Amino acid sequence: MKPYLFLLLICFLSSQISAQDKEANQVFWESLTKHCGKSYEGIVTTPISENDPFAGKKLVMHVVDCGEGFIHIPFFVGEDKSRTWVLTMDNGLMKLKHDHRHENGLPDKITQYGGTASNTGMAGTQFFPADQETADLIPASATNVWWITLDESSFTYNLRRMGTDRFFSVKFDLTKEVKSPGPAWGWEK
Which residues constitute the signal peptide according to the record (predicted)? Predict the structure, then answer.
């Protein structure tokens, strides 16, 4: 085979693989936006102590707002409405940020941490290693990796702090809608 034909073949195959990879995060995104306006109850699937802020609390996610390049998902822990997961698309890659607010709507001093996917991931899973903003804001979280899995019946949010035992996972049942506890703090329209 002529060297230039081989090079053309490699370029063609690379573009095909790249096109398939680019479709994965779009498939994930489109699957998630199908749940826009819906709320679901979840459970922590990792061991927690009885003193943990999640212990004994009703956990609800609400895929409240889906727009061009963003998805807002408040995560309610009992009466605590301080957490919102913010997913955005940035240069073809998905980004996850954690927006934390006080009851008066003002941002918490620890907010906007998260990361950007290093690649387009898979149609059912997206990974978000901690970004520099997170490392600067919360140095202990510099090795955090968050990931979200999504299939027909569940949405699972996960956190692993590499090099430690820290692991948290909460799984939401997408087969049963529940009533939303209302807007997250600071996100009232």
Answer: 1-19
